[in-house]
Amino acid sequence: MVEGGGVTSEEGVVSMLTGKMQEALTGQLIAEMYSAYLYLSMSSYFESLNLPGFASWMRVQRLEELVHALKFFDYIVEAGGRVLLGPIDGPPTEWDGALGAFEAALAHEKKVTGLINDLVEVARAEGDSATEEFLKWYIDEQVEEEESAEEVVSKIKAAGDDLGALDAELAQRS
Ligand code: OFO
Question: Long-range contact list for 118-121, CB < 8 A, 24+ apart?
Answer without folding.
Answer: 118/24, 119/24, 119/25, 119/28
